[in-house]
Amino acid sequence: MKFLSNQSEKEELLRRLLQVTPGSRRQWGKMTPHRMICHLNDSFKSVIGEQQVSVRKSSPVTPSLIRWIALYF
């Protein structure tokens, strides 16, 4: 795992981020380069407490179904 407290790892991360342009090719799914940067920014803000994370509530059936499967299979 890489840490921002490590200067060389931080520089590597900044170098990689600076290479991302609006015309960059998508590499991992359907996210555009702009959306990927926003996603990373939102994730970082949530970790440092600047942004609240919304948690989607799933159907009440899902947890009980998973519990049932875990117990009986």
Please explain how this structure is put together.
This protein is an all-alpha fold and 73 residues long. It is built from three helices and no strands. The radius of gyration is 18 Å and the shape is elongated. The chain starts with 6 loop residues before the first helix and ends with a helix. The model has no long low-confidence stretch (mean pLDDT 86).
Question: In short, what is this structure?
Answer:
The protein has 73 residues and is mainly α.
Note the main attributes of this structure.
3 helices, mainly alpha, elongated, single chain, 73 residues
Q: Into which percentage range does the β-strand content fall?
A: under 5%
- Give the low-pLDDT segments: none
Helix share bin: 40-55%
Structural class: mainly alpha
**Shape field:** elongated
**What's the total helix number?**
3
> Count of DSSP E strands?
0
Question: Whole-number average pLDDT?
Answer: 86
Main sheet, how many strands, which sense, barrel?
A: none
Structural Rg? 18 Å
Order of helices and strands: HHH
| N- to C-terminal distance | 34 Å
SSE topology sketch:
Elements: H1 7-18, H2 33-47, H3 61-72
